[in-house]
Amino acid sequence: MKATSCPVVIVGAGPGGCACALQLQRYGHQFLLLEKNRIGGLAVNARRIENLVGMPGGISGRQFCERMGRQLKEAGIRVIFQEVLQVERESRRDDFDIRTADHIFRARSLVLATGSRPRWPGVARPEIHERIFSDLEGLGERRGEEIAVMGGGDLAFDYALSLAGTNRVILLARRSAFPALPLLVREARAHPRIELLAPAEVRSLDRVDGGLRIHLAGREDPLQVDCLLVAVGREPDQEILPPGMAGEKENNRREPRLFIVGDARNPYLRQISIAAGDGLRAAMILHRQWDEVLAWK
Fold first, then answer.
1. Sign, Cα dihedral of 236, 241, 243, 247
2. Which uninterrupted H or E stretch holds 195?
3. Bridge-partner residues for 169, per DSSP?
4. Separation CA 109–CA 10 (nearest Å)
5. Which of 6, 51, 100, 186 has its CA 20 to 30 A from that of 198?
């Protein structure tokens, strides 16, 4: 298996990973930026990002990700599109071995910017993968369908509003008091192609010809829809780390070597600005300790 050594490896080219890479590039330091899918991560799904300072009127997630890609290119930063499968510790020197399918990237310091993964609600998961989604990927081109969105938070409402442009959407929330932003709730209530059902607790899902049947608590007749988008929350994605390694980030304050940034670190504070700040902070700490980082050679 091929192996490449570099002082710093960044895993994930979302806002946190890109901010870290751009700042390290400004300092003139060596690093590698790995990404399994696309630049920007889940930000591409955002209908409108309107809380970024300096962007009056907001910007779509797709535009935001395109701008990030251009910014990396203009800075001369190359993204290596490989999926990281596992992180291990090299036994002799205690460095990080970042493994992909056909390569090992060895680093003194690791910046984990892998984002978040979807939670699954407390209902049996049927084998209907082609009809159940956890984000807008694969759903964006659908037209004239009936789509159920499960969830009552910001993400669920934002997804519902995005899909309602060309589809009919039924938003299923467990509680009538939505935790979503009031402005999103107002937009959804006013949208002619969005139906809000709350409280609506999903008990089970069945496969039917061409779609899904959703059984709700207290409702005799099930809903029949073309597909289901589950947006009941997300949790930090640290799956590639071995057990116990995530706690290391706080253990060595003189020379921290593992940085977990953005949504991979924050279970609830999932905001682009926070992710970018985490990445910038990691780069500044790495710059301050760069002599120690290079000493591994």
1. negative
2. strand 194-197
3. 147, 194
4. 9
5. 51
Amino acid at 202: V
**Integer CA distances (angstroms), 277 to 17, 157, 248, 288, in order:** 10, 26, 20, 17
Residues 6+ apart with CB under 8 A from 246: 238, 258, 260
Instruction: Give the count of domains, the chain.
Output: 2
Regarding pTM above 0.85, the answer is: yes
Q: What is the pLDDT of residues 130-142, one digit of tens each?
A: 788 988 887 877 8
Rounded-to-integer distance, Cα 180 and Cα 60, Å: 19
Q: Which of 252, 206, 260 is nearest to 228 (CA)?
A: 206
Q: Which CATH number goes with the domain that contains 19?
A: 3.50.50.60
What does the pLDDT look like over 77-111, one tens digit per residue? Answer: 999 999 999 999 866 667 899 999 999 999 999 99
Q: Where are the alpha helices (DSSP H) in the chain?
A: 15-27, 61-74, 154-163, 182-190, 272-288, 290-294
Domain range for 81: 2-117+234-294
